[in-house]
Amino acid sequence: MNLEERIRAFALLGQSIVSIxxxxxxxxxxxxxxxxSWFTExxxxxxxxxxxxxxxxxxxTTWTSSYPLHPATTKxxxxxxxxxxxxxxxxxxxxxxxxxxxxxxxxxxxxxxLIQFLTxxxxxxxxxxxxxxxxxxxxxxxxxxxxxxxxxxSRYFEYYFRHIPRIIRKNRTSxxxxxxxxxxxxxxxxxxxxxxYFGLGCRNVSKLFVPEGYxxxxxxxxxxxxxxxxxxxxxxxxxxxxxxxxxxxxxxFLDNGFVMLTKNEASVSPISVLFYEEYKDPNDLHLKLTAxxxxxxxxxxxxxxxxxxxxxxxxxxxxxWDYADKVDTLQFLSAL
Length: 336
Known about the structure:
The chain is of the alpha/beta class. Helix content is 40%, strand content 16%. Helix 6 (113-125) links the parallel strand 2 (102-106) and strand 3 (133-135).
């Protein structure tokens, strides 16, 4: 297959995602929830919608036009997928196949149903992909690897795959910058970035940077429309557990009944908890964000006012060219 044929196949896959029959989607969601109860119907819908957005022929053509994706020799690319949110590994999957290489993927035990479903659809659309997609338990005999995991597993990946070209991703999260002048509707939109996927994704906001003396009452009040997350049994268990820890340790916190805010300089907060830091002025804010750069996937701000930020409510809607950890995956693959 040439690049144009690969783009056409994925563009048709995008159309297929949008038009999944209701009865098939119902069965799919049930199977997904049986594998991972964090993956609700709403979470699956959001993930599929996000993927379909960038699987248009126009987007794919524009995105790939600046890369030499016509390999003289195809390579076997190992892909160790994460499973924290639905289809979190799809972008890497897409990059490998668009680049013309063979995919050798170890699926996450927490998110295999959706990837296998989309693979069946892709192969139905373009049967030649059958020879390019391989699901394996062990990543052996590969020429390069893309692996996503925790900070601990990343050290294992770095050692195990030290002899081949690799992209190894660690824990990351996202943060929000507030000026203190955001209207209620903007604060409500920030809740999308906080509560989508229950806060499990690297593009979920888990840290707030606020001006000194910031009043959190309007913020917490604006999030009452997301109270439904507190009814999910796993989220509720996390909330109860984290609240007990804060109480036992005498750590001050704010609470609206389903999310807690506490002052902490760390980047990654537990589920149901948001950390915050205060800043004195723009320079102080810049220094604090710089200190967190290695752990930050993206920054959100109202209407994207802060430099290189994403508008509130859009953290989970990246474009195809918004690479995880800002590492250009297609450049890596095209250079092999």
